[in-house]
Amino acid sequence: MNKIILIFIFLFLINCSFNKNSKFWSKSKEIKKELDLIEIFKKEETLKREFNSNVKVRLISKPIKNSFINNFDNNNGRTNFTGLIDKSSRYNFSKIKDFSLIEPELSLQKDAFYFFDNKGSILKFQSSTGKLLWKKNIYTNREKKMNPIIFMDNNNEILIVADTISKYYAINSYNGELVWKKNNTSPFYSQIKIYKDKFFVLDFENVLRCFSIKNGDELWNIKSEKTLLKSHKKLSLVIINNRLIFNNSVGDISAIDLNTGKLIWQTPTVSRTIYTDILFLKVSDIIGDKNNVYFSSNKNNFFSINIENGFINWQQKINSSLRPTISDNFIFTISEEGYFVLIDKRNGNIVRSTFIFDRFKEKVLKKIKPVGFILGADKTYLTTNNGKLIIIDTLTGKSENILNIDRDKISRPFVLNQELFIIKDNSIIRLN
């Protein structure tokens, strides 16, 4: 019965979302024409074909200056990376166990970045020279054998660290000295979000915890949905309008008041009737503007949700767990099937869908999956699970070139000081 209700609601939303009012910018910054958008999905069908593939868009706003980009920006918009890729260098470390199953992130800071190795050592590199500035490991020999996965964020002076063996601690970002160290009752598996003198992180029991940066003391916590079955996808947090918006392992998205820790709203986005769905659920990082947040999942759903009340503005049938990107009134995403999709963020209309795996042979297409992407000044850079970097023309949606980075999985791209960084299982690759 619940499934029938959900299907009815979805069809209603879809019928409302597709109209003939979606527009795009011409070179003269004037409306050129109206796109004749039609309803392209039926029932549970996902996006598996090109749509308006000849549409060329013009992005008006300037790309973000990326001398320093916080990994976890609410908007993760277009960067000013120009894509002059002509040489590479490596920052080597011990091989990371189960690299193919995790989603490691660089923590960026002006002319430096932080990462970790297989034994839990924190590494700080100078991005311009490749010099190792310091290395710090706070773990015992027994803990090193557990191969902790580390999540980080920094506020320039302090690097906050949380891991999958229930530890969290702070390190002086200038010299690598330990500031304080604490233990949690459960492992962590989420982004870290710093806000003033506090930081926020989700543990494996779907408990959102607020800690003091000064000493690591827990200030308050909020218990989200508790379940025996959990997705191993890293959870996401964003801060907008004094609210912290976050997801949990069962697909709920919630908002809390940053000052009081009070839950404002919680919106379920996944049916609880089939527990295996939750076990294999992968939800994208949340992105947001001043009014709404956006995210998608590998369960064929893309959402826009109102920040004030948690109401679903629109819902679209796109199968993706990649972090989307906002630029102007558009949202860019890439589906698991290899379609580069452009969405009108105001109403959820699909403006364009272009197949970008067209350069691969049929036998490769069955195995290839997108890992992550970043928008440059006019190009989009996508990494795949078979070690490829695909360069896409953002304005046309067409793939232009494929670079071989590695044979196996590589991370999503990161941009710092007009250089592109990609993580593999034993090194970080810098592309100029």
Describe this structure in words.
The strands form nine sheets. This protein has a four-stranded antiparallel sheet, with no helix packed on it. It has a four-stranded antiparallel sheet with strand order 4-5-6-7, with no helix packed on it. Strands 8-9-10-11 form a four-stranded antiparallel sheet, with no helix packed on it. It has four helices and 34 strands. 7% of the residues lie in helices and 40% in strands. The chain is globular. The chain has 432 residues and is mostly beta strands. The protein has one domain (2-431): YVTN repeat-like/Quinoprotein amine dehydrogenase (Methylamine Dehydrogenase, Chain H, 7 Propeller). Residues 1-43 have low confidence and may be disordered.
